[in-house]
Amino acid sequence: MGVPTDYATYLRIDELLDLQQPLSDGAHDEMLFIVVHQVYELWFKLILHELDAAAVALDDARAHAALRPMHRAVAVEQLLIDQLHVLESMSPDGFMRFRDPLAPASGFQSTQFREIEALSGAGDARHLDAAGRDEIHRAQLSERLGGRTLYTALGMSMRAAGFDAPDGDHADARARRMSALASLYRDHDDAPRAVLHELCEAFVDHDETIARWRHHHALMAAREIGSRTGSGGSLGVAYLQSTLDRRFFPELWEVRNQL
Ligand code: HEM
User: Signal peptide location in the record (predicted)?
Assistant: First the structure.
């Protein structure tokens, strides 16, 4: 029999509720700012848990087992967009009351967000510098950057189902992959193809939801800081606007042109 537990013990509620430590006195909205960021990091943790499960299933050619974790990750990402509305209840002057002391802290330094990008195929080794102050975060991100991606795992499942979908950046590999994807998108009536097609669309959902988050986050930032530089030291909203066209799975957007 296990050790008896209760709600507060199991969920470590006391530790959890001790983690919100504002830096400024009397800045009412700082609690909101801290809670929202911490909740984001918890959801990032779950998203990584789900995307990892999807990648493992795809690597093992169990495409059907990747569907539920992909759908769950996307459902959480939708929540992340909705949470931006909560932050938008903060007026710019409310933010200015506590903003200066927290610099250079910025979501730009979120290792888990960079891990989600890396696992989705859009890793960027330059972000190791942002995580660089903390060796554990740096090692965590470094491992992701050298590891498999969701897209290469999808390729494993496609090949196991008989598609000619090789890995790699070479033009020939890319052309064969595009033709395999076009074939899948044109004909997905039988069960194995239907599962792979639904997965590709779940990948597009993931890509689109993060892209919508980028848009909304940039708008929210413009409401809060106008054209000031970011607390992380970037150009601010102008930098965020330069990220809006990033896509995780460009080939899944491109295949639309071949139908
Ligand atoms: C008042 C609220 C917020 C403002 C004004 C804001 C503003 C900014 C700005 C200006 C940047 C560019 C980097 C920099 O120089 O700092 C940035 C990046 C970023 N922020 Fe926020 N942010 C806010 C809230 C959040 C929240 C709640 C999250 C959730 C974790 C978040 C996640 C990110 C991420 C992941 C990036 C990097 C984006 C990229 O490089 O593609 N931000 N933010």
Answer: none
Question: 12: left (phi > 0), else alpha (psi -120 to 50), else beta?
Answer: left
Q: If you measure from the C-alpha of residue 242 to the centroid of ligand 1, how many angstroms do you get, rounded to a whole number?
A: 13
All structural domains of the chain = 28-258 (1.20.58.480)
Q: Is the CB of residue 110 below 6 angstroms from any atom belonging to ligand 1?
A: yes
* Helix (H) or strand (E) run with residue 14 in it: helix 13-17
Cα distance between residue 158 and residue 170, in whole Å: 18
Q: Is the separation of the CB atoms in 131 and 138 below 8 Å?
A: yes
Ligand 1 proximity of 106 Cβ (cutoff 6 Å) = yes
